[in-house]
Amino acid sequence: MRSLACLVAVLLAAVQLVAAAENITQPPDCGFKCIVTSVLSSNCSLLDTDCICTNAPLNKEITLCVTANCTIWEQLQTKKYSTETCHIPGNDRRPLVRIVAIVFGFLGLTAFALRCFARLYVAAQTWGVDDWIICAAVVVMIPLQVIAIPLSQNGLGLDMWNVPHDNITKILYLYFWDEMVYVTSLSLTKVSILFFYLKVFPGRGFRYCVYTLIALNVCYAIVFDLLLAFQCNPIPGAWRSWDGTFEAKCISINLLGWSAAAINIVLDLAVITLPLPELFRLSMSLKKKIQIIMMFAVGFFVTFVSIIRLRSLIAFGNTQNVTQDYVETGYWSTIEVPVGIICACMPAVRSLFSLYFPKVFATSRKGSSYGFGSVGPSLKLSSQPKLASNKQISVKQEWTVVSSDVGRERYRSEEELVRQPLDLDDGDAPARRVTLVKGPARSNSRDHV
Description:
Belongs to the SAT4 family. Belongs to the RBT5 family. This protein is mainly alpha-helical.
């Protein structure tokens, strides 16, 4: 046993000299001891690096020994020494982390800017609750996209053994805030869409469903923000306990990630599918229905991104290569949030595009800008063919149209209230109540309204 220790010490000194000369990472004592003892019990020679690097059972034995006898940081140093000695190239996805965040952040901000322009200068709409909430969602989105830059600068996208110790702690610290920002932004986006539904669809049962979904989304954000904030006791354990030198009791990050992602997908589907029955009942052309449904299809893309991100969480909690395995989860997050904001802004952007592309986004009323983002409950009387002025029609009963409260008292006992279905093509016309009042019968009367 003493002779083996002496042999390891001599070989380690030699390896350290070679490593210094070739600019290779020096292995820690415990890791090098595992390598020597495992190689001596194999068919490979200590000097035959090709045999050691290509012998899968030997490498598995070395890994088990290093895991059992070395600290996490020593394990990473041993892994780095092995990859450099065996000339195994490391992964570098840092540019991907930055580019995805910048591109989709720019697209989200562009859609939001177009929405604001359409609201304030084109549609002349009153700035509503849904607009304020989407502003909050964008304010929260910006840090999510910006955080991707320091994450990549500190080494997110590199293999963990190629990242300095302190940088790993910084990455986990940034991720701690990134998770809460992500959850909050998603919830705010869905709440904004739901408040927009309240402006468009007047049905009482539908509004109850909307208020229920708003409450569920708010509860989702509050509950998971608190769980993420206090996932470890003490709180700094969320970013400092990774190397085993900081004691903390933490909730399983896998459990948190999977539950949050699954509930978010369910809420996404509920928000997207809720207005579809109402949309199919609208009195509009097939082309406009297709355009509206295509806008909602973007929402299904957001759900698709959520599902892909859920798949990337498989290795999230049990990873042994944090700075590499967190990349996929990170960039799908920076895609999902801006695309959700784009989806929330598309109806208002459509009203803007209708001014510049009237043939594609045509409206039924000249001068009115169709805007799914700028409409409210409206009433539209269906247009009928004009009758010739010299024609006479016989009617068994006369009906009078009363479009306001004027004259209501006069006909209160015989009035019948009729409310036309919502037509999104009617622009910004306010909701109106139409009353058909039965009067005495006339025959051979001319057309009258």
